[in-house]
Amino acid sequence: MGNARMFGPRRNEKSPLQRLLGLNWTIVLINCMIAGVGFAMLYSVAGGHWDPWASRQSMRFIGALILMLTIAIIDIRYWMAFAYPAWAIGIALLLAVEVVGATGMGGQRWLDIGFMRLQPSEVMKIAVVMALARYFHGRNYDQSRSLRSLLVPAVLMLLPVILVYRQPDLGTAIMIIAGGVAILFLAGLPAWIFVAAGVAVAAAIPVAWQFLRDYQKDRVLTFLNPEADPLGAGYQITQSKIALGSGGMTGKGFLEGTQSQLNFLPEMKTDFIFTVLAEEFGLIGASITLVLYGLVLGYAMLMGLGCRNQFGRLMAGGLSVTLFLYVMINVAMVMGLMPVVGVPLPMISYGGSAMLTWMIAYGLILSVATHRHVTLAPKGSGLA
Amino acid sequence: MLAGGQGLVLTALGGRLYYLSIVQGEKYKLRAEKNRVALRLIAPERGEIFDRKRRKLATNRPDFRVFMIPEQAEEIAATLEKIGRVVRLDERRIARLERQIKRQRKFVPITVAQGLDWRTFAKVNVAVPDLPGVVTDAGLSRFYPDGEQIAHLIGYLASPGEAEVAANPLYQLPGFKVGRQGLERRYEDRLRGAAGTRRVEVNAVGREIRELPPRQEAMPGSDLQLTLDAELQKFVMQQLGEEAAGAVVMNAKTGEILSLASAPTFDPNEFTRGISQENWNALLKDPRKPLINKAVSGQYPPGSTVKPIIALAALEQGIVTEQTEHYCNGQHRFGNRTFRCWKRGGHGKLDLKGAISNSCDVYFYQIAEELDIEHMAEMLRRFGLGQNYDLGIDGEKAGLVPDRAWKRAAFNQPWHGGETLNVSIGQGALLATPLQLALMTARLASGNHMEPSLVSEDLETDAPDTAFSKMEVNPLHMRIVRRGMEMVMEAGGTAHDYRRSKNAPKQAGKTGTAQVRRISEAEHQEGVRDNDELPWASRDHALFIGYAPVEDPQVAVSILVQHGGGGSSTAAPLARAIMDKALDLMTPPLPEEGEA
User: Fold this and answer.
1) Which of B3, B13, B28 sits opposite A246 (nearest CB)?
2) Which of A4, A336, B116, B245 has CA atoms 20 to 30 A from the CA of B424?
3) Nearest chain A residue (CA) to B209
């Protein structure tokens, strides 16, 4: 307002309240709707009970929503300043997991910090994007194209990927790489690098196979032919496809999914919750949910493209791709288009980590949106 | 460009969803339904088995049981341990169950405990919801009220074999058992009935959520009625006691088997429950062979019990008449061999009836000099020896009636006249089962050519004599032989009982003592050793056949006591008591029979 404009150092500076009111509330509402779908499905998975999952998930969501809005109205310059420290903290946490982490679900992923279980790999998904965005910020197109300038991003990306893969959590490692590659692409790296990398990856697959854990190999093999052992490793994917397919156009009705209510589906409240949705609400219900995700992610992409500062542009683009992959991997997995890699459907699956990642990332995207007209100094935090 | 890519991928996912739910929707709907709805079979109640007077021989009684389906159990050892806390399961039992689980395919239910009382069963049921793979069942178990009396006939039930379980869904019902031996096996189809079906909604671990109508009830199996008289059977078993023995009592007119006994015996209930290794080993090791049904599986030299038939063959061939006399000095020369009579000093002069009542061997050697083995064998066969009757009991043996063709086939040797002499006194290669001997006696007593039967199709018994064709033997000749058999039981006969009351029904019979060892010439010189001096397995078999009452024969009996010693001393008294008891049970016309 008037006073701020008069005394403030920057003429286009807004107060936190103004920034809060200036958010795109339609998009916030769509995020809430996605979470609402999650509550409904958790209610169904519990056999028509609010407890134990839907109630706790909704409490978490309220906390996460407040966090998202808070992040959204914090000045983007703080986030830029925080990019490298966030990455460093993420690496430290990953190392901590390596040393003291609790083992769960066949991998060492959690760090018990008292009031919640923290998954550093989730933190890392965001931190890598922030750090890469920070790195390419202020580098012009030509600077970004030099090979020498790729050394730092390579370290920023590969160090966390190696640590995450060692946990082992292949799904998250892939998501970190993909998020990073998206930023490299947005930063304007020449196309031949992506092609060369693609070729290198294809060539590395046979070698990488040797390094996969047995259960990871099983998952890939099962994916390639799930019907080979319908009662063993292929059970999950076979039952998931049956549930998806039997839902038909309109679904079997809320709380009427036979595959889910009779426990034929595995991991219903987490990895396979989209299957429950598709079984009970059919193609229509599942498509609407996908469209909601599409709207939210499309908005993020638009905000990124419309951002006048490089950091915001890259961060919004990178986070949008990361979140998109989150959704895509889960949905493709339950439809039998990808191996079962244990990636939840963010916002809908039961569990705090994925929801928190989504809401923090989306908070950052909203922050980018709020500050899309802000120009930042090519170097430094811009706060100096 | 990235946004476009994302849109494209989302559209592709939508397309995949469309493909699964719309294009292939029907297929997956069917598979979901197959997942959800299970067709469960309802076990039919097995038919009961009755004796001729509708006394239960095999029945079903409620049984509280606990099963485990290893495939559905999470932790087998832990599950067993948890059940063991409620049901008493000692370590050996658990070890045995674990071995069984390892041996079988994982979908085959195993019986963890049975015969539980209601309290224990209720406790298990409280625990069951937390124990996947554990199934309780208040079903019916087979029970044989007087199992030991009829063990050799009835057989027992056992869990079907693994291969059968895979092939027949009914066999996968926990606790379902099939006839494994004896009548239970032979009449399996009839006793079993037909399974019913019910449709149930099940969850992923197979637990039933609710039943979906309609339900088709099971059809219980048909009952089986035997010709056996349970009371007589019990009496006969008591008479045989601890001996290794077999006995058959038959309706002399119809061939209906009133009792078919083999001793020692065992408890078929133990088999149905699952016999312990110790008890099984004990049964196998017992030299008296409790598992063998001696009445139909035991083939013994019939000894002198066949002499009436040999006499009949000689009469028919015109070799002897009622009056033909021979002199017995205790031995008979044939070629360069000496055949001896059982009576060392000889019988002196005897006619045909005397030869039968005194069981004179020399008289029959004389007959055998002239009577061809083919005629002898033909008559023995005509009276039922040398063939199977397929009663539905396991291990029925045909015995052996030797003749020239047999000798040629078995040894590729010609028949020797000396062998005919041996057969004439029921020795040599001749073998018969107690069942055959009882049939032989019944045919001789009634003159009817009947077949033995064990299962009566309905309650109507005692079919009139005319229902059977007559034996193709001159009735006069049969009367002579029968008279000889009456004299066996009279003063001077080999089975005379001085204490027997004059009013008791008159019995006829024939003793037999079958030699099981070779007696050397040296022993004959020094004096043949007495049975009491010999080890059990070398002693003679004691045999007896008989019928009563002589005026109008109602029952025929055969009895064999393995290594029992002499027929007159061991077998005859038992047979006498059995015949009296059988007549006792037959004579008062039963009200059911009168009305039927």
Assistant:
1) B28
2) B245
3) A262
